[in-house]
Amino acid sequence: MTVRVPSKINLHLSVGDVRDDGFHELVTVFQALSLTDEVTVAATDDPGVEVYGEGEGTVPTGANNLAWRAVQALAAHVGKSGDDPKVRVVLRKGIPVAGGMAGGSADAAATLVGLAALWKLDIGRDELATIAAKLGSDVPFALYGGTALGTGRGERLVPVLTRHTFHWVIAFDQKGLSTPRVYGEIDRLRAEGDPPRIGSHAPVVEALSSGDPRQLALLLGNDLQAAAVSLRPGLRRTLRAGVNAGALSGIVSGSGPTCAFLCSDAQSALEVAAELSGAGVCRTVRVAHGPVPGARVIGGDDAP
Ligand code: ATP
């Protein structure tokens, strides 16, 4: 059973104060992008995880892999615990690892959807989302995709109406950034001074329903950007280079270091990507569009 699953960017990411459980209270607008991973799950006598593509050789293949944690969580949920589940998971990664685009979460969501089909479970997306939320804050969004407002740790979702396909250029940095480190840095910056915080999400939601990329471009905002740039100062140059190449605006995606550039249309995105590739400010450049659907089966017995 093979499942395609989107990456996410945060069009708006407002980070509140630290809660008693150590997480920050977030208000975020997610958009699912066509930069995807493909995850194949199969019954086997030789259980485990294989990783190809982005991050091959650096992503853990043991019990720490989020996809494997999804196997165990779903097995426990349906009473298949006991021996290790007899499942092989193959990840073909297009989403940058530790890039702020929730690649690991995407793989966990895809594994839940793939296994539900493989095991012919009578289980809806909302029930899968309950298991997903326990695996990580970004896992439920990867199940639903589209565009959504996320609150809490980002796991409480409400769909947001969008009237347009938006075109993006994605710049991968040389290496990843640890999400906990970036949150630690925003706490440090806030303890030292008071870096500006982005305002309400309401104007972004309005711009999405109007479908005008120029209006949306003015409103992209990420409270974690200052922290990511503080840890990786070269991102300033990347963000400038994207706008100089013709993007409407650029933003650090989530906890970074990946940068996302909003373009006026598909043709402009191709031109910006070509110019940015030559600018020498990042490792890889991709074009993507959004919103796209969440994790869905594309191959295997139940494929559409
Ligand atoms: P987020 O935006 O949700 O914070 P991210 O996109 O920055 O996440 P991921 O690619 O999800 O980061 O991975 C973060 C870390 O999780 C990696 O450094 C890796 O060690 C570990 N990891 C576990 N499982 C996976 C997986 N399936 N794919 C990628 N990384 C994984």
Automatic annotation (TrEMBL):
User: Which biological process annotations from GO are given for this protein?
Assistant: isopentenyl diphosphate biosynthetic process, methylerythritol 4-phosphate pathway; terpenoid biosynthetic process
Which top-rank group of organisms is this from? Bacteria
Question: What pathway annotation does it carry?
Answer: Isoprenoid biosynthesis; isopentenyl diphosphate biosynthesis via DXP pathway; isopentenyl diphosphate from 1-deoxy-D-xylulose 5-phosphate: step 3/6
Documented EC number(s)? 2.7.1.148
Q: Which Pfam families match?
A: GHMP_kinases_C, GHMP_kinases_N
Q: GHMP kinase N-terminal domain: which residues?
A: 65-146
Domain (GHMP kinase C-terminal): give its ranges: 205-279
**Name of this chain's protein:** 4-diphosphocytidyl-2-C-methyl-D-erythritol kinase
Q: Which organism is it from?
A: Amycolatopsis xylanica
List the gene name: ispE
